[in-house]
From TrEMBL:
InterPro entries: Spondin/Thrombospondin_T1, TSP1_rpt, TSP1_rpt_sf, TSP1_spondin_dom. Residues 21-73, 420-474, 684-732 form the Spondin-like TSP1 domain. Keywords: Disulfide bond, Glycoprotein, Signal. It holds the Pfam family TSP_1. GO terms for cellular component: plasma membrane. It comes from Carassius auratus (Goldfish). Coiled coil: none annotated. This is Thrombospondin type-1 domain-containing protein 7B. PROSITE patterns: TSP1 (PS50092). It comes from the Eukaryota. Gene3D superfamilies: Thrombospondin type-1 (TSP1) repeat. One of its GO terms (biological process) is actin cytoskeleton organization.
Amino acid sequence: SLCTLDNGPGTFQSCIMPRDCETSDWSLWSPCSKTCRASDMSPGFRVRTRSITQTPIGLGKECTALEEKEACNIIGDLLPNCPRYVWKTTDWGNCQVAPLLSQLDRRLNNVSVLCGGGIQTRQLYCVQVPDNSTPHHRKEVSRPVSGRLCTGDLPSAVQPCSIPCPLLCLLSSWSSWGACLHDNCMETHGRKGYRQRRREVLEEGSGTESCAHLLESMPCEDPVCFLWQVQSEGACVPTEGNCGNGTRTQTVACVNSQGQLVPEELCEDEPPPKEVSCVMACSGDCVLSSWSDWSSCSHSCSSKSSEGRQSRTRTVLGLPGEAKTCPAAAALEEWRTCNDHPCISFYWEASPWGPCIEDSSMNLNGTGYWNGTATCAVGVQIRKVVCMKKGVGPVIPKRCPESSRPDTLQPCLLPCKKDCIVTPFSEWTACPTTCLPVNSSVPSQSRYRIIIQRAANGGQECPDTLYEERECEALLVCPIYRWKTHRWHPCTLVPDSVQQGMTGASESCGKGLEMRGVSCVDEYDEMAAVSECLRWAGPMPSRFRSCWVPCRDDCTFSSWSKFSECSGCGSRRVRKRTLTGRSRKQERCQREDLYPLVESEPCPCEEFVSQPYGNWSSCILLETPGQGSLQGWRGRRQVRDCGHGLRYRAVACLDHDAHLVSPDLCSESGLVEEVCHMPCPLDCKLSEWSAWSACSASCGSGLKVRSKWLREKPFNGGRPCPKLDLKNQVRCAVPIGK
């Protein structure tokens, strides 16, 4: 009795009559997903589906599963074997050094001259293994398939390699000039002959053509064909007693220009003596070493202003006893003139061998091997040989000895031609199995083939087309269905009959439900099944919503007015509403904390400010088009490591309240850029060699030196100065008495 019925909670409300979900019958089972016998013995699956014919309403039962799945072909003994797939590889590409270099290490010079450690790459592709039951009479190249079909481990696609660096040819010093010999002792030509000197290759360079000439000749008179040569020397035998003056025997023989023994009668000059004088030291004598070898000649030839000289020395090994002395210092050194011939010499200069040209007159029976490389034909190489006068240039051939003329023609073996091998085209990629949405672009399908072996040695070149693309044909356009909504019906309240059965007064107001019709139509606005819209148009829009019918004592308001005009960034705009009807006189409705009549909001502001954010980036150098190629047909661009470039800095975009907003409101990229410059590396620079200094000794043997000095230090990673003594020194001699 203490509770009033007017303020009590509601005991009735509007509701939606429930209706359960309704579906179509199940479709037929789909084909089994397992169509072949695999090693994992996993089963296949098949599915069936059904569609919704009536969506649930209110508290009606929800739709149960629209798809069922069950196992099939569990054992699979009667199924054929599944195809097997394996990884295949192409040939390794050329060894490349450039990919391993950082931007700083790359230079502007041609990357094709780089050598040392590098990498090789190759392409991997998946193929189907032919069925053993299918006869195949020749080895065929399989077409590539999707890599998802191969399950084994991937072969390596990269391996280390090395490009040999070019080696300079290292030569010995020139030998002494030999005797005056006929060029051809079988055909002598009067009194004209040649003296020759030689040098040897101590270390081969990157090919014999990289070495300079090894033989020089100079004309001479009164040549011979045979010479006397000392073959061996015996021990010193004293003439009296066990020491003192004595003789030593030496064996001499007559040899030809190649050092081979010939009969003695062929040598026209007098032979050297078979005995020569010698001295064997007595006890108490000054003990001297043997004479050293003659030093190198100070000049390679003689002229009016210069004369070649060389020396030899011996040293005191033991001091003499009493009353005996050692020779004076001058007697421990001997000098003689050398290379007293004119400064005129000639040599044959040969150009590098040309390419190997096939010679049809010479053929190999089958395939041979040369230096580990298969060869299929014999060819010839040609080079140019010219007689050169040292320090002058080409001269007529007869100035050089014909016997030492290098060959101008040599046989060579041609490697076998390698034709390009490509796989067949892969299957066309699948076109979409579903329909195309309206106004969408037409999809395409593609296929490709892979180069397994590139052409070499004049073989057939690879085809230009490795990738093909075409539009998919005969694709259906997706049907157009849409949900069509109708007007909302008036708000449905609890019927009066229900309300009148309640104690107390009642009125038709309060919370209710309103309903609208929703139908499925096609593109021509014709009625269609609900299942079509559920498939093509998405979920059904709501058909019910809550509504409210104001009661007599409820506060009623007018609609909100439009927002007021803004006075600028940072200001606010307002909108208003008013009480209507009897609400204007009710004290409860006039409480603005419960029923506000004015609302405000910040004005939208279109003023934004850019503000630098963070540090500048590193200087990024601009790329320039390069002529080299990184991987054969794949183009590349040379990368510079110095010069002009650009650096960037992020820009924060802020609104009037200093809040971060999208950079698009301030600039297009959100970055500012400026030109920068990265200094280029400078190598160490040394001066040219200075002139030789005067000899350090006023007479006899001494040294003379020359030097370099530092002109410019290395900078910014340039080549450092060599860690070597920058001085050169050679022995010199000033004749005694000058």
